[in-house]
Amino acid sequence: xxxxxxxxxTLAEFLQLPETKPASEYLDGQIIQKPMPQGKxxxxxxxxxxxxxxxxxxxxxxxxxPELRCTFGGRSTVPDIAVFVWxxxxxxxxxxxxxxxxxxxxxxxxxxxxxxSQTKVTKNILHCLKYETEMGWLIDPDERTxxxxxxxxxxxVFDEPDALIPVPSFAxxxxxxxxNLFAWLLE
Length: 187
Known about the structure:
The chain is an alpha+beta fold. It is built from four helices and eleven strands. It has a six-stranded mixed sheet, sandwiched between helices. A three-stranded antiparallel sheet has the order 1-3-2, with no helix packed on it. Strands 5-6 form a two-stranded antiparallel ribbon. β9 (about 135-140) and β10 form a beta hairpin. The two termini are about 30 Å apart.
């Protein structure tokens, strides 16, 4: 079960705390530890990151990051997958990927775990959309469904195996059907 730790900490104080495993998030003044990923969650996450990166990374279009802390808009969350357009990836003085990401991802992907609150995860996606995230996915392995969120649009539901799941415009070459996504659970 997801644990909420009630401490009156500011975001800055939260960011000074040691990292937890699984990660804790700072949401509306509360510290909430994410549930430990289980088999279906880990399988989908482990396959989806390289699938996205195989298409967008070689052309320096974007890059997918697993479990990356993103702090913006008064929250600090750790999406299961955060995808950033190449020229928005924070860099340090050496030009390397920075450790701190203080901006919203361009595409946020969450994979629902059995004991995870769909409401909390949806709120995280909606928070991202408020800060210029182009698209959010909520993948529900148990229901074999992908919910697609876009700014100022109705949520779309994809549960037919042949349905092509929409992707952000910058990742238009990523072609993935609902059936392909959930077939990873059989491999």
